[in-house]
Design goal:
The protein is mostly helical. It has helices spanning 2-26, 30-55, 61-84. The termini are far apart.
């Protein structure tokens, strides 16, 4: 019963990733695309967690942490790029 529910959740997470990819391709604006990328990151973390539960292992927990950090940093970088046009600001001293 539990394995069936976990398999169904994997299918639903994969479906939401597919919908997010469509939003990235067809998104009317850049913020929509950034939100879709963030949604893909969150769903990938959920998929890895469910696979870790199905396989009964803790080996993927580090991957979940790294993917969460990278997803957060990527979202911040895209947001900064949308707001200012640059990601890293360099101050020039003359």
């Amino acid at each position: 019963m539990i394995e069936t529910m976990l398999t169904i959740s994997l299918v639903l997470f994969a479906t939401t990733i597919a919908i997010a990819v469509i939003r990235i391709i067809l998104g009317p604006s850049m913020p929509d695309r950034v939100i879709a990328l963030d949604m893909i990151g969150v769903n990938l973390i959920a998929i890895i967690a469910v696979v870790s539960i199905i396989l009964k292992t803790k080996a993927f927990l580090e991957v979940i942490l790294i993917l969460g950090i990278l997803s957060f940093i990527g979202t911040i970088a895209f947001s900064k790029f949308i707001e200012r046009g640059v990601i890293v600001e360099r101050k020039r001293h003359r």
